Amino acid sequence: MLDVLILLGGLAVWLFGLFDCARTEQEMVRNLPKWAWLVIIIIFGSIGSIAWLLIGRPKTVGIPRRRPNKMIPPDDNPEFLKKL
């Protein structure tokens, strides 16, 4: 039973690393090109995924949140007031 849990845990780590690397933008990948990380993850499995998570994944300070576009009334809109 323990062997099955270890196998499933390794598979989960491998799949997470593979999909996380595939979804990361090329410009944000650290230390190696994205294609090289994908090859490492595929060849080395869970060890490659752990390496991706530790040294290849981009460091994020925080997730920038987009503000919903609010309607600005014309008397508060600086661009509209410049046209007057």
Mind sketching the topology for me?
Blueprint: H1 2-23, H2 34-44, H3 46-56, H4 78-83
Written description of the protein model:
The protein is mostly helical and 84 residues long. The protein has a domain of 55 residues. The chain has four helices and no strands.
Q: What would a concise description of this structure say?
A:
The chain has 84 residues and is mainly alpha-helical. The chain has helices spanning 2-23, 34-44, 46-56, 78-83.
Keywords:
84 residues, mainly alpha, 4 helices, elongated
User: Between the first and last Cα atoms, what is the distance in angstroms?
Assistant: 76 Å
The helix/strand class is mainly alpha
What pattern of helices and strands is seen along the backbone?
Answer: HHHH
Parts with pLDDT < 50 across at least 5 consecutive residues: none
What is the number of beta strands? 0
Assign an overall shape: elongated
Q: Approximately how much helix is present in the residues? A: 55-70%
Largest sheet: none
Mean pLDDT: 85
Rounded Rg: 22 Å
Tally of contiguous helical segments = 4
Strand content: under 5%
